Model the fold of this input.
Amino acid sequence: MSVTAVIGSQWGDEGKGKVVDYLAEQSDYVARFNGGNNAGHTVINEFGTFKIHLVPSGIFAKNTIGLIGGGVVIDPQVLIDEIEMLNKAGVGVDGRLFISPRSHLIMPYHKILDGLYEEAKGAGATGTTRRGIGPVFADKVSYNGIRWSDFTSDTFEKRLSVQVELKNKIIIALGGDEIKYSQVREQYREYYLKIKPYIKELFSLVQDGLKTNKNFLLEQAMGTFLDTDWGTYPFVTASTTIPSAASAGLGIPPKYINNVIGVTKAYTTRVGAGPLPTEITDTKSAVYEQFGEVAATTGRIRRVGWLDLEIVRTAVELSGTTELCLTKLDVLSGLDEIQVCVRYELSCDPVRYADLDSYGLEQIEPVYKTVAGWKEDISKAKSFDELPVNAKNYVRMIEEAAGIPVKWIGVGPERDATIRR
Done:
């Protein structure tokens, strides 16, 4: 039995979806345990190209069962669309995708409030995806949430009636239009009928799997530094993103998580507001153009920066990461020189990420090391030995800084564009 958690060691968008898809063939269960559809994982395989937000990225492995734990908040329409998309593509999720009845639902008022809160903050907006994630997690911890389990009795109507009345007062006060109880009730009743065949209490399934030596692959949403507690608060997500969240969000006891893979992009990106110490601010520079990306969930242009080894080190220490998967190494091809942040300084004194809050992080000076780049196209490389010398040196530098091995190297977006060491 093995339980492997796949986490992002930066600010998300590291390529976790590809990694989970690659590893899923060896897994009996692949599970999402946190976040919601604010996370977008891109998967490219023999079925096509998919941008997945709720269904686990390992669902393409035909003998793998997908689980969505109670720690995940669900937009029902997004989930229904994904299920239909996957079935249409020939993946076939019926009978092998199960959703916890403990999952909280994103309601229309959550998305409305998400937008109204951001607008009310003005210059202080945190750059949310406006998917309703923050408001639904706020309702969850303030006893105002609605779960799939509420649909088995008249609890849903009772809770919804109270919430619509309460939320309309806030919406109107912030300048929005009130929502109609009857419309929401009917819409979500329809959602429930479509999702009902997939709803299943996961506790016994998970516990039995652990006892019978099944292999679990746990898929984190977002990245380490969007964690509510350890991230760059308040520019974070609304859920815990480190592996310990699998205990609450799926029912996996901590002692069973015996392997943590940290997915690390060969450079750094971030979507939305918040500090990014190694950010490349010259948007017209050739390097910025080379690193440029579009977010899978929002379509926004990602901010880009050089690799930040202090961030990677901290993620490794925080999550007990046992090995790294380095992604998008091919994107660096063609550069004569590459900048890498090796440490932080504040007023000329060395300082760690954990010593700072978000506003202090904006004041630090990243200390860079210049390393030699490579011109060769590495997208066809199948082994570490086939990489250029300078690309190998880049990988070894990351290993030395992190103190753990780089076991996988991504040299392209496709599943098979992966070097296993």
About this structure: The CA atoms of residues 260 and 390 lie 27 Å apart. The mean pLDDT is 94. The domain at 2-100+200-261 is CATH 3.40.440.10 (Adenylosuccinate Synthetase; Chain A, domain 1). The radius of gyration is 22 Å.
